[in-house]
Design brief:
It contains five helices and seven strands; from the N terminus they run βαβαβββββααα. It has 173 residues and is of the alpha+beta class. It is rod-shaped, with a radius of gyration of 26 Å. Bound molecules: zinc ion (ZN) (2 copies).
Length: 173
């Protein structure tokens, strides 16, 4: 989804609606650990005023993630309504909250801005549900839906946790 800066500049002050859908792929590394894939639908308006592109944007993203405790896949929905300002790169630094586009660009893609709005709002520890029980570190069982596997040391450990008074007693028997 591209915006024509050229057109926006030519009709400075005029509002242009836009809408679209895009697939957002995470970059290798940190982002890939947070997101498997994401699909975003968006609509909004763009206007060029006072040397800047102003965007009013509404988006809804379905983000596929892997739970950080049990590794199950789940979908997180993100909805946002944002106003962002885009300036030519050489002007950036004046206001940190602004986004930049290459100097003299005639067309710009909205993808990088959508990416930072969507990926920037993801928590660092994805959870399939707040009380996810995770995987057993010893036997690998997914404790949300299965018991420890036979011979898992966690099982023996539990059996050993007998009431100490009973344990004392059993010495005398
Ligand atoms: Zn989980
Ligand atoms: Zn186990």
């Amino acid at each position: 989804m591209d915006l024509s800066i050229k057109e926006l500049k030519r009709h400075a002050g005029k509002t242009f609606p836009f809408a679209g859908e895009a697939e957002l792929l995470p970059r290798e590394g940190q982002e890939a650990a947070l997101v498997l894939r994401a699909r975003v639908g968006f609509r909004g308006e763009a206007v060029y005023r006072a040397e800047k592109v102003h965007l009013a944007l509404k988006l809804r993203a379905e983000v596929e993630r892997a739970c950080s405790r049990c590794l199950d896949r789940f979908t997180e929905t993100i909805e946002k309504e944002e106003r962002i300002t885009l300036r030519e790169e050489r002007e950036v630094g004046l206001a940190d909250e602004d986004f930049a586009y290459p100097d003299e660009a005639e067309q710009i893609s909205l993808i990088p801005y959508l990416r930072s709005l969507v990926f920037g709002s993801l928590g660092p520890k994805p959870l399939c549900r707040p009380d996810c029980a995770g995987l057993c570190p010893s036997c690998g069982a997914n404790l949300n839906r299965e018991e420890h596997r036979p011979l898992c040391p966690e099982l023996t450990f539990r059996e050993e946790k007998v009431d100490p008074r009973l344990a004392q007693l059993s010495k005398w028997l």
